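Researcher: We're teaching a course module on how sequence relates to structure. For the next exercise, students receive a sequence and then see the predicted structure as tokens, so they can try to spot secondary structure elements on their own. Here is the exercise chain.
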Amino acid sequence: MPTPPKVYQSLSNILNAISPILKDQQGHGYKFRGIDQVLNAFHPLFKINKLIIVRSEIETTREVREVEKTSPDGKKTYKKYYVDSSFKATYHLTSLEDGSQITTGGYGEGQDASGGDSSAMIAQANAFKRILLELFCVPTEEIKDSDMHKVLEVEKQVTIEKAQAREAIKPAPKEADLKQIETLLLSGKRKEAETFANKFDIDDKTRATIKQRVAEAKGKKAVEAARQKAS
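Model: And here is the predicted structure for the students to work with:
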């Protein structure tokens, strides 16, 4: 059996180890998870599991908007410039052990209200942050005991269903199994032969072959019996 790519084991390890990242950053009237929080949470896990992220196929846009504003006292008007940027890239999560990788796309937007160039960096950070949070389904709070109980119940049911599915898949019969069925049929033990045959996935062609072999064997036995009787 071939060895599975190590990138999948690394991703599984990180998924099991990552802790919730709280939305405790404040800005623009809402709370969010900052890029530094995300990097601090993921860096040790990526290091332990020998995983890196490389980006490619980068697309960027940049737009400068001029907006007319009014002073708080309403006496003056002035112009304010906003810089809006978007960033789109392909990210390759790569195992340093065997070079295996998975690829995902990331997109982010950023705005600089001072008219400077920080919007591009904000867009890049948002894209990178988004792929990590979405790929590993990072929660924003600890799972409560009642919720964990529900999760465990679901996992238990999935395990049962997988076991039932494995049992439902019958193996293909080997040549020795076919001969065992033929022997039982030749001995007149038809019920035992059917019970044994039901353990395997036997197609119609194979069943026809078994039937033909049994008929030929019975014919040979009949001929041999007649020959012995004649002698």
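Model: If you want an answer key for the exercise: The radius of gyration is 34 Å. The chain has two domains: 6-138, 175-230.
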